[in-house]
Amino acid sequence: MSERLQLLVADDNSTDRMILEAILRRLGHDVLAADNGEQAIQLFIDKHPDMVLLDVMMPGLDGIATARRLRELAGEELVPIIFVTSLHAVSDLTACLDAGGDDFISKPYNPTILKAKLNAFTRTRLLHKEVQAQREFLIQEQRMAKAIFDNIAHHGVLNAPNIRYRISPMSIFNGDVLVAARQPSGDLLVLLGDFTGHGLPAAIGTLPLSEIFHGMAGKGFSLEYILREINTKLKNVLPTGVFCCATAACLSYRGRSIEVWAGGLPDGVIFNRRSRELRQIASSHLPLGILSDRDFKYEPTLFEMSEGDLVYLWSDGIVETANAKGEQFGLERVLALFNASADGAGVFDGVLAAVQDFSADGRQQDDHTLIEIALAPGAEGFEHPASARRKLAPSALGPQRWQLHYELKADSLRQFDPVPMLTHVFLQVPGLRQHGGKVNTILSELFSNALEHGVLGLSSALKADAHGFHQYYQLRAERLQALQEGYVNVTAEHEPKAGGGGVLTLTVQDSGQGFDCAALPGDQGNPKFYGRGMILVSSLCQRVQYLEPGNQVTVEFAWDDA
Amino acid sequence: MSILASGSPDGKELTIKVKGRFDFSAHQEFRSAYESAPDSMNSFIVDLRDATYLDSSALGMLLLLRDHAGGDTAHVRIVNCNPDVRKILTISNFEQLFSIM
Q: DSSP labels for A370-413?
């Protein structure tokens, strides 16, 4: 331990000071000398000594005051201050320590004791430097990690005009995740998650979750498939005991429904601005990452979507914020804010402000995750925002001229939705991906008509009112579950056009009774047969033709390479 | 926070009593309580009568216990929950995995 130190000595008594300087120099150190407090401070500023030996009793600025000032100047750095003193009273020595002194040495000086103290402090300084370096390193690592996380767990369509959200900037390190995406059909998917634990281990789970979410949503997979996949992945990669509480919602503008799966987070809310009706979204599932795929349940709550609905989801940070008395903010207070608001405007800011006012240490409202989704009319657009954002380079290679025939019989219809997979196959045509949303919409509409009206015999007239809405979906589930016979088959064909682009011809046939399609061609204004969906399909396709007895329809979708 | 483990007279059932805040600080002790129990113990009771608070790391510890006790075939009962503790278990739907009384 023979590091050459630069030491500052301050003593108004020149004899004492010179003796000390001599001892220190003989120990191999460099010495700066001051005979009063102000001079000591100036030398400290100019020369940055490694340690300071300070006499307590000095005229003018005494040792105690000097020590305080030196401490301030040192800041984060560890600069040991040793008081040299002839004082022995405990109260005096205590005052020295309180002022920021680290140790004492009494006059007359004992060189051995002095050497021992200097060595001890040198070790401490080195340790301190090491700790600081490690901390800097960790902070740098975290910054990099956060940048990577931000790219993967990107916000998707969270910046849409009908969405307001707040996510803690440090959410990555408290395990919160918020993602949203539009499916090719135009449906909006949102997932709010909260991983258990803190720091990087809690954050790591957000990576596979986001990848799976965005990847599958973009391909048109339903919320059930996505959650199932995420659950299995998390179960496999996370250690037992680590899981993700989450609420996920699918807002289907065409189906006019909000489907919500909630597992482990406090109740969310659907508040209607006009009727002031408040519907709670309660957690009814185990959090993600606990159950095996076989045991995973998808039993969502279905809400009918109305004009003026606002969907609110939050992580438990909001509900659990505690005040000085240790009381939690609680769900009741949040609900009271909704009930007290006139039209829902300002609830978002109101909740954040109320929580901040309530919290014990005025904790930043930044620490919470909260999302508000307003149902914007005209949110029906199926232009996949991602395709605008991500300039998809059409692949030069791919199948341009092909035909396929796909038939699903009853037992497969019960368990499998072929639309995402078939859409994916169709979109292998070079350049067709730009029109992915339209292709998916067309196939989706034709398939669901074939299944629901054709095979299951449901009438869309049932969906006309609120009660009928639930009845329709319940009946759909029951009849599908009980299905023993029936089929839907899809025939698709693609031909390229001379100048670029092509024509996709789709024929969907079902085993149902069909209906009177004599009235149809050009009868697009008749919702009894067409429904909103078929009007849309007609507007997208250059030809729509029903074949007797009405259980088969062929459409032609022509597209150009933009 | 303290953990007290006691076995039944027939050596088949282990009761783990958690007192105070059941949070991350309980991790080591809770784990040793069931890991050091003899293999003859095949049934577990977690007594939360004196537990004042339960957080997500406690839920994680319960999952670890369940895993240790055989996963899907485990016999783990959680008893004497006060309303706050009950509420946390309900929101997480843990009654789908544990017998809660």
A: EEEEE--TTTT--S-HHHHHTTPPPPS-S--SEEEEEEEEHHHH
Cβ contacts of A455-464, under 8 Å, gap ≥ 24: A455/A410, A455/A413, A455/A483, A455/A486, A455/A487, A455/A488, A455/A510, A455/A511, A455/A512, A456/A480, A456/A483, A457/A512, A457/A513, A460/A531, A461/A528, A463/A256
Residue A450 has pLDDT above 90, yes or no: yes
Task: Give Cα separations from A210 to A136, A233, A292, A444, B34 (angstroms).
Answer: 29, 11, 20, 25, 36
Nearest chain B residue (CA) to A266: B91
| B94 vs A contacts (CB less than 8 Å) | 286
Paired strand residues for A488: A408, A510
User: Alpha-carbon Rg of chain B, whole angstroms?
Assistant: 12
Give yes or no for a cis peptide into A521 (omega within 30° of 0).
Answer: no
Task: Tell if the CB–CB gap between A290 and B63 is shorter than 8 Å.
Answer: yes
How many CB atoms sit inside 10 A of residue A144's CB? Answer: 10
Instruction: Tell me how many residue pairs between chain A and chain B have CB atoms under 8 A apart.
Output: 45
d(CA A444, CA A467): 25
* ipTM metric: 0.90
Query: For residue A467, which phi and psi values (nearest 5 degrees)?
Result: -70, -40
Query: Angle at which helices A436-449 and A419-426 pack, to 10 degrees?
Result: 140
Nearest CA in chain A to B95: A286
A266 chain-B contacts, CB cut-off 8 A = 91
**Structure confidence at residue A361 (pLDDT):** 67
pTM: 0.72
Select from B56, B57, B93 the Cβ nearest to the Cβ of A263: B93
Q: How far is A96 from chain B (nearest CA, A)?
A: 37
Give the C-alpha separation, A75 to A70, whole Å: 9
Q: Do B56 and A240 touch (CB under 8 A)?
A: no
Tell me if B41 sits within 8 A of B12, measured CB to CB: yes
- Pull the structure tokens for residue B41: 């113990």
pLDDT single digits (tens) A337-385:
888 887 767 888 888 888 888 876 655 544 688 999 987 654 444 444 4
Average pLDDT rounded to a whole number, residues A469-489? 89
Is the distance from CB of A260 to CB of A248 less than 8 angstroms?
Answer: yes
Q: Quick: pLDDT tens for A42-90.
A: 999 999 999 999 988 888 888 888 998 998 999 888 899 999 887 777 7
SS (H, E, C) B26-55: HHHHHHHHHHCCCCCCCEEEEECCCEEEEC
